[in-house]
Amino acid sequence: MTDLTGKCEFLLLILHINLLSVLNTYLMKNFYKSTRSKSVSFFLVSLLGIMFTFSTAAFASGNVTLFTPYTKISVPPGKMINYNITVINNSDAVQNLNVFISGMPRGWNYNLKSGGWVIKQISILPKKKEILTLSVEVPLKINKGTYQYKVMAGSNYSLPLTVVVSKRGTYKTVFTAKQANMEGHANSTFSFNTELDNLTADQQLYSLRSEVSRGWDVTFRANYKEATSVSIKPNSKSAITISVKPPDRIQAGTYKIPIEAVTNNTSASLKLDVVITGTYKMELTTPTGLVSTSVTAGHQKRLELIVRNTGSAVLNNVKPGFRAPSNWDVTFDPKEINTIEPGQSAQVFATLKADRKAIAGDYITKISTKTPEVSSNLTFRVSVKTPMLWGWIGVLIIIVALGLVYYLFRKYGRR
Q1: Of 131, 129, 59, 133, which is closest to residue 88 (Cα–Cα)?
Q2: What share of the chain has pLDDT > 70, as a percent?
Q3: Which residue range is the domain that position 196 belongs to?
Q4: Residue 316 to residue 362: CA distance in whole angstroms
Q5: Rg of the chain over all Cα atoms, to the nearest angstrom
Q6: What is d(CA 153, CA 180) in angstroms, rounded to the nearest whole number?
């Protein structure tokens, strides 16, 4: 309903009330004087009521209503507001109306459209309606508060709208990580999921960089591709994956990885924490480096082994093991090594027992040491020899056989 319509209706109502008051005074003074006066008074009252009815109906016949369900909303800075506004022609005549925005705050951008077109004037058939679309962009750099403006249809019809900006706006860049702290081994690659938010009114081309010590490798991925820069539209954000690979043989500890996104106008920084638990590496060898030995079938052979911690993390609960031919056995002393510090070594003795029925030849036996994090293997070539007793028995059998042949030859040879 228009402002002018309301004012005019109010004035007409006051005028009619005054007329009725005057008429009432007249009737009170002259009611009993004559029947003719009563008739005239009744006629005047009826005429005044008819005039009031027709004057109000005639004024209302030009009504235009502007309607939207959301006339007061709360938004953060930089938000785009979209209104659907219905313009209703309540009259019996076609309404041609100029449409525009009045009182839009300075620095706010807007578009007023209908049917996909930016419009300045609209025509509405009697008892029909048209839809307007109003898009309002709240600036980023703005103070917290309440802001008002109007959608106008002609100079008489308006729709007041109120926007409450929930917080003070900024002109800056924000760099955040979903998880800024990760822990792992030195040979791990740490992947951080981050988000770069351009809270400015301009498109920004950010240069991505990291100042790290020598040996560290930091790479950036934006839009599923490796990149050293990323372009972000105003009041928009971009997901960036940062991969961090530490140097070889780095000591256990916590390391800070500084990350920067820089333009000529704005910048943002981010610090990532990489917690290195150390590199798990282990070497199993012998004091001399030889990995071959010999043993007599059914006998034992004691082997000396060295377990070295060549990583940067402490090795805990180191357990030796073996894989040997069937019916062979290997025992270890000690059965488990509690800890080996980085750069240190431990001694283990392996007692190898060959099958007593093993025939002479070369056999393969694998000895290993392992922890939950790492393992190491060593392959031994074992030469098996038969016992000396069986050798002498064999020689005796040969001598007996030769003696028997000689006896038979002497006894039956002349016949």
Answers
A1: 129
A2: 83
A3: 172-276
A4: 35
A5: 50
A6: 54
